[in-house]
Amino acid sequence: MLAGAWEGKNLCDFAFVIAAVSIGVEAAVFILLCCTCNLCGLGYIIETIFMGFGSMLWLAASLVFTDNVMHANNTIDGDSQFEKWRTAVLGLSWAIFGAFVILFFVYLFKMLAPVCPCLNCCDDDDKNRVHP
Q1: Residue 69 C-beta-side C-alpha neighbours within 13 Å
Q2: Distance from the CA of 91 to the CA of which of 44, 61, 125, 130 falls in 20 to 30 A?
Q3: CA–CA gap between residue 54 and residue 104 (Å, rounded)
């Protein structure tokens, strides 16, 4: 459905592996943060690192999907049902990339908030914190 092969590899398998790695790493981060009480209050650092990793992972996947889906949609005729599915996978992969980028910046601002007072205006996690 995703235009067959990419350098001899099945793109459907590639999509499943990327999704499985993303879900697996997030589950591991979730368990780590639950078992260590949010890493003693520093869980946003781990989340920032993971969101950066996820952004790079999904950017690479989205670029591969874009190249192959555009090629398949332009060369395969009369395959409108699969064309819609390929386009949906392409759109979802870019949406997931966008979500990871947004969450990366959310956690990055949270990580930098103690250093730069201008970034902690929206941080309501600590009710005792005095805002400037």
Answers
A1: 22
A2: 44
A3: 9
CA distances from 42 to 37, 83, 92, 105 (A): 9, 45, 31, 16
In a 13 Å sphere around the CA of 53, the CA atoms on its Cβ side amount to 14
Max Cα separation, the chain?
Answer: 64
Q: How far apart are CA 125 and CA 109, in angstroms?
A: 13
pTM of the full predicted structure? 0.78
> Which residues have a Cβ under 8 Å from the Cβ of 85 and sit 6 or more positions away?
1
* Chain centroid offset of residue 100 CA: 4
Q: Compute the distance between CA of residue 55 and CA of residue 78 in angstroms, rounded to an integer.
A: 34
**106 CB contacts (<8 Å, ≥6 apart)?**
none
Token duo for residue 61: 């996947």
Cβ–Cβ under 8 Å, residues 18 and 61:
yes
Read off the pLDDT of residues 42-89 as tens digits, 9 standing for 90 and up. Answer: 788 899 999 999 999 999 999 998 988 887 777 766 566 778 888 888
